[in-house]
Amino acid sequence: ELGKKAQEIMNRGDLVPDDIMIGIIKERLKEPDCTNGFLLDGYPRTEAQANAFDLLLKELNINNLKVINITADDEELVNRLGNRRACKSCNEIFILDDIQNLENCPKCGAKDSFYLRDDDKEDVIRNRLEVFKANTKPVLAHYQKNGNVINVNGIGNIDAVNEVIINLLEKS
After folding, report:
1. DSSP 57
2. Which of 25, 38, 73, 163 could make a disulfide contact with 34, Cβ separation 3.0–4.6 Å?
C-alpha cells in the first residue's frame, strides 16, 4: 500500500512524503537480507528524512553509514534518463540504443512493449532536478559534517562508475 502511494507520487516527479518513506525504509531494513548491509537509492532526500533516518539507524543499531553522491550535470542526466525505455510486460529498463532495432523484449520476449516511463519524460526529469537542488543538497551537507559522503563522478559507463564506487567503499 505504501509502495503504491509512493510510486504514484514519484511518477509526477514529486518527492514522497517523509512519513511514507520512513515507513517503507523501516520495514525494509528489518528484513534478514539487510543484516550485513544495504543500499538505498535516493534516500534520504530532505533534511527531515535525514533526521528521521538517523534516528531509525540508531534504533536499529546500524553504524558506519556511507552516502554515495554520484554527480553529473543536468543535461547529461536529462539525456540519459530520456533515452531509457521500459518493457510493459516485465518492467525491465533498457537504453534506447540497445533496443532500437528490436521488436521483442530481450528479457521476456514481449513484442512491441517498449515505452517511455512518465518519470523519464523531460519535463518530469527537469522538475526532479529542481526539487533535488532545493531539498537534497542540504542532506549532503548534513552527512558531509560527519565525513559520511563519498563523491563519485557519474560520467562514464555503468561498470566503470560501479568499480570506482566499490573501490572507494572498500577504502573507507
Report:
1. H
2. 38
